[in-house]
Amino acid sequence: MKGVYENTMNHKLTTEQRNERSEQLDQLSAREIITLMNEEDQKVPLAVKQALPQIERAIEAIVNKMANGGRLFYIGAGTSGRLGILDAAECPPTFGTDKELVTAIIAGGSQAIFEAVEDAEDNGEVGRDEVRTRLHSGDVLVGIAASGRTPYVLGAVQEAKKLGILTVGLSCNTATPLSQWVDYAIEVSVGPEVVTGSTRLKAATAQKLVLNMMSTATMIRLGKIYKNLMVNVQATNDKLRHRVINIVMEATPTTEDEARRYCDLAKGDARVAILMLQCKVDYSTVVQALDKSGGHFGRARGQLMVQGK
């Protein structure tokens, strides 16, 4: 543990360097502060753009694993861990996935979601234990660490590599230890923060953008979206029930009354309602096609279209 700390001190990370533009930050007005922050934030998507080839390669590998029954795990500490939790939590309602398909692990456990557990990130052995206990060989582990040096995350990816688990690393520095250990390295260097070392700012924004891309593109490739419609959305409240009806109307030339009727027949499943309308088949036929395709909407639709000819 001491060696990791000393190595970090000997090589000052970009995310820990002082930002020359904000050296007089405490002397600025509120308007000047937020203007400066806004200008710095604009650098983030440009930095992410530079990493698109790395992100693409990681997504293709993740899709391949998940198409063959693998699960996606995020692991991180502090803000990085919370961002993983946020992304994982949104997958079931958005894409209709099982809650175990995309999972996030944070150093310090559930307590660390709501309050800082700063020393939790220093224990690499706990990270190793999480991997040994929770992951299987066909899964994917995405280690998230702005510094690229967090011992908890490094321990996790090292154990995953040992067990033959596919690994991805997401950091906001270059040539990091995390990148050296993983199969697919994503490095988004956003430069020094407005508040020195506060990686909940630009670094966290970059991580959020990449995680958005990673989960969204993966789910699209797995057939969870039709055109640009959330056909797998879970209708768990009134707002989402209305959304399902609107999705069915967008995907098919039908009236609101008919869309509502088919949604009822489909038990609130937009995919089923759309395919019943488009392919002129009954509920059980659509469900069978979706089961056969592994829940891939496009493939199920293709099967039903061929059957209807």
Please explain how this structure is put together.
With 309 residues, the protein is an alpha/beta fold. It folds into two domains: 2-221, Rossmann fold (3-Layer(aba) Sandwich), CATH 3.40.50; 238-308, Orthogonal Bundle (Helicase, Ruva Protein, domain 3). 55% of the residues lie in helices and 8% in strands. It contains 15 helices and five strands. A five-stranded parallel sheet has the order 2-1-3-4-5, sandwiched between helices. Helix 8 (151-162) links the parallel strand 3 (140-144) and strand 4 (166-171). Helix 3 (43-50) crosses helix 10 (202-221), helix 7 packs across helix 8 and helix 11 packs across helix 12. It starts with a helix and ends with a helix.
Largest sheet report:
5 strands, parallel
Structural class: alpha/beta
Q: How many strands? A: 5
* Name of the CATH homologous superfamily of the largest domain: Glucose-6-phosphate isomerase like protein, domain 1
Instruction: Give, in order, the helices and strands.
Output: HHHHEHEHHEHEHEHHHHHH
> What number of structural domains do the residues give?
2
Q: Please state the average pLDDT score.
A: 93
What is the level-2 CATH architecture name of the largest domain?
Answer: 3-Layer(aba) Sandwich
The percent range for helix content is 55-70%
- The Rg value, from CA coordinates, equals 22 Å
CATH class division of the largest domain: Alpha Beta
Strand content: 5-15%
> Strand sequence of the main sheet, in spatial order?
2-1-3-4-5
Straight-line N-to-C gap:
65 Å
CATH topology of the largest domain, anyone? Rossmann fold
- The total count of helices amounts to 15
Low-confidence stretches: 1-10
